[in-house]
Each structure stands twice: as C-alpha cells, then as structure tokens.
Design a protein that fits this description.
With 601 residues, the protein is an alpha/beta fold. It has 26 helices and 22 strands. 41% of the residues lie in helices and 19% in strands. A seven-stranded parallel β-sheet has the order 18-19-17-20-21-16-22. Strands 3, 4, 5, 6 and 7 form a five-stranded mixed β-sheet that branches. The chain has a four-stranded mixed β-sheet with strand order 11-10-8-15.
Amino acid sequence: MNKELIAVILPDGAIQLEWIDAPGKINKSTEILQKEIFKQFQQTFASGLLFLGFCDISVRLSPSLGFLRDFAQLFAQKLSRTPGLELIRDKIIIHLEKNEIAEVISKSPFMTGGEYLNENILKKVWTQLNTQFQQEIKKHRGTVENFINNFSPDIHLVGRVYFHLVENKKNEKFPFAFLATYSTGLNKQGGSKHLPMKHALEEYGDDNQKLIDLLATVHLAAKESQLISRILDSGEIFHPLAWSANEAFTFLKEIALYENCGILCRIPNWWKANSNSLKINITIGDSSPSHLGMEALLNFNAQLLLGDDIISEQEIRKILAESAGLAFIKGKWVEVDPGKLNQILDAFEKAKQAESAGLTLKEVMRIQMGVKDIFDNSSSNDLLEISNGQWLSSVIKKLRQPGLIKSIHPDKDFKAILRGYQQNGLNWLHFLHSLQLGACLADDMGLGKTIQILGFLTLLKKKNIPANLLIVPASLLGNWQNEINKFAPSLKFFIAHPPVNPRSKEILKNDKFSQKYDLVITTYGLVQKYESLKSTKWYYVILDEAQAIKNPGTKQTKAVKQLKSHNRIILTGTPIGGHSMTLSIRDYWVMPGNFQTTRKD
C-alpha cells in the first residue's frame, strides 16, 4: 500500500486523518507507524494524540502529520520533564505558553485546511492531550514512568538533580561556570526549591542509600558521559566549577543525553534556542516574476546568517581557523564544527550558483508543501532556512485565506446574483487566472459551481482570446445550455455533440472551430473520437465532473490530457483525497473550505 496518512483541519476546527496517494515510495518503517497511528486515532482522537506524542520521531511522516506529531511531542516532553510527576499523577496540568503557540503556528506546513489553524485549535488539542493523560494515568496502577515506557521505553522521568551552566564574562580563561543543584520540595508558589549539591552531603550524612537515590539520574548519565563520570567520581559535582569554553562545549553537546536520563538543565538561551547557529537563509520571490504560471522563475537571495546577523564567507573561514569547540565572534558564542562549517560553505556556493537560474513557482510550491528540496543532497537542504519574499508571501497568504483576495464582479451581462461563497469562488478563479495557475473548484453538488464558472467566463469574454472548451458528461449538456441562456446570455457558445446538435458533426470532422465562439461544449466520449478537439489550442479547458478522469490508465483520461490549452479548470463535487483540500496534487489549486455538507451564506 503506497498511501500517505495526512492530517486535515476542517472548517469547524476539527482535525481528522485521511489516506491519500503518496507522492513517492513509502518506506516500511513509515508504513508500519502510519497504520498504528491510524489505529490509535480510530479508538479516540485524544488517545491517538497521546500515542503520537510518544511515537518514534526518527520515522518520516507526511508534513501535516509530522506537524501534529511535533506538537503532541512538545506536550510529552514537557510532561516527562515535570518535577515530582510521580506524586502529582492525574492532577498534572501542563501549560502551553503564548510564545510556544506562536512558534508552532509559524512552523506549520502547507497542509489541507491550514487556513483554519489558529490559537484556539492548538489550545483545544493541548487540553485533549492533558485530559487524556489524566484519565489514563488515573486508571494505571503502576508508576508514571512505567506508563510512559509502555509508549516509549527510552524516556526517563526527571529526578531531583538539576545542572546549571552560565556565562562568566569576567573570566576570559574560564568563561563558563557549572553548578549542580537538587530540589528539596515545592515552595508556596508551587515551584521547586533548590539547594547546591554540597547541601545533600550535610542533609543525608551517613545515609548513603538516600544519596544514591538522589544521584540515580546522574549515575545513569555517567554511564554515557565521560565528563559527568569524571566530576561524579572526583566529587566535583558537589561544588561550583569554573569551566573553559571546551568543557562548556562538551557539556552543551550532551544536553540531550542528560535530559533523556532525567536531569533538568538550565543553560544559556542562545544555545537552547539555537539562536547563535550558522545557517543559510534563502529568500524566495521578493519581487513579481516577469511572467506568471507554474513555470515562472522566482528570484531568490542566499545569505549566510549567524543568528539573525549577516556574516561573510571570510568570517566563517576565520571561525574555521579556531579549534573545535566554541568560538566568540561578533559578541556571540558559536559552535566550531569544521565538517559542518565546510558543508555550509559548500551549500552556500551552490545556492549562489543557483541564484542566476532561479526556481520555478512549481518548485517553490512543492518546497512549501515539504515535497521537494532545493538541492539533491539532503544534508545540504538541512542547512537551509527558507523565507518567503514580499511578493510570494502575499500570494501564499491569499492562497491560504481566499477571503483576502480582492473581489471581482462580472459586468451587467451576467444575470446571476452570487451568494457569498460563490463570490469567493469567482474571486479565487480570477486570482489564479492572474497567476496563470490551474484551478479546482470543489463545491458539493448543487452549490453553484456552474454559476461561478459562467461568471468567470464573462470576465474572459472582454479579452481577445481563443475559444474555451468545456467537457461534461452527456447528461449535463442540457443543464449547461439552460444555465448559460439564463445567467450568461452574452456568451457565444457552441455544443459540439452530434446527438444534440447535428451540424456539429461536420465541424468536428473538418476542424473548423471559429474564433466567434466564447465557449465550445463537448463530452468526454467525443474527446477520444475527434482529433480536431485535440489539435485545437484552447484558452481554457474546463472539466465538469472531473472525477471522470481519476484513473490515469483509461483512454478517456489520456485523451483529455492530450488537449492543448493556455490553462485548465476542473470541477468536482466528489472529494479528491479527502475534505476541504487547500492544495491539489500536480498543477491544480483547490478552493479551500469548499467540501462541506452544508453551506451558510
């Protein structure tokens, strides 16, 4: 089964999982994990969330499901690092900070229903996670650590020991200071009270077992860390220590190890936030391309950044001259990793070379959806930070939120009065037309896809363009004819279907399509039969009931794909890979939010 599991946000804020055809081959690990995730969510949404929070992060998931996993794992991480969790158990309340919400939203991928993602949805998911854990741990008779290990055996709850590393700017030789503390209970505000480790020697005196229990997480870390093993065996852990940059660097590189062993670490924010890291920032689409369409070339600008500051290649080479560890440059501590720095310089060189070629809009959109990387080398792509330029940001914002698109109104020749959602659909069609992007209008049956297309065609009528081709099931020919006569009588149309219009047979045979028609209407069956339909260069090819070509192997689908046109629109009331798609696969853009069983104006 080469299917990919995705997360979809519905207009009411609910989140559901759906299977779609995978854009590439799914590996075995991903296939197994996807099935288990789907199984867990089939039980209850909240139990699926909790499972997702503790599942293997190394296994690749779709961008949307991976995003949901990252959010659930933020909860799991904060939960497992809560001091005294064994005592608190089902009374635990894990808080989600406002800045964390903003960061999560800023990192959200292009996903189905992404336009509905907001603070309230994330808060609701967070509450469901908290409530689900409370309910399950209340029923669990064992320890909290045992409960969590049923999900992930490698997670250790935090103990009572804390490691602290701070900068000591007054000492050039030993610019860092280390201190180990332990919690002695909770203060009146509910926070942990801390004492330096030397007080544990006084508190426990000759009771070695209590001291061993206190240091259990430290002994665990010492098995994996030579640094911790040394300060533990020497007794230095009970005293404040002055450290060189190299010792501090060793400590910082091992933070994940200590925290996995259950030791909470208090470290400088610049390391925690990775704010002093070196990276390549590529800004794509700062200005409008010279021509539009999926093959339009967007400009991009590559820069080397140290945190938020621009840095030159020469300055990086200066850092390379330092020994491995930490280097102090531009008032910041920077990790010196020769291999990574050389890799950054190599990737930057490739990025500068690619600047002249640019990226097509299609490539950029695939990057936005997490499908394609800029470089063939995945390790080089890991060093990139992609930013949208002013023009591209504006376009993507409107694609995500069609309500921001400027309203467009047909002239007086168009007789229909559009409802609100139909006006949004017309705006959407016209906006995609201005970008020369294909569109998929995916309203449920009976909600007025025909009216929206007719409104769009009356807008095109004002321009000197070739005829448009509309392909419909034979049963809908009469409906389209009636709708045109009623709502868009100024459109000059021709029905190319001999059973309905006998004179069209001769025209179809002789390839005599005239510029005098705004619209030629035919059926799926005739596209296969007449070469004239395939040889004519149409302005738009419009497919009604487009699910008729969902099978790529049929003659009908192949014939439709051979049609030549400036652009394409497809209409369907049948879900394509799920509900309310924000983006379709390939070159069609789907009106967000239009797959709904009910519609309120």
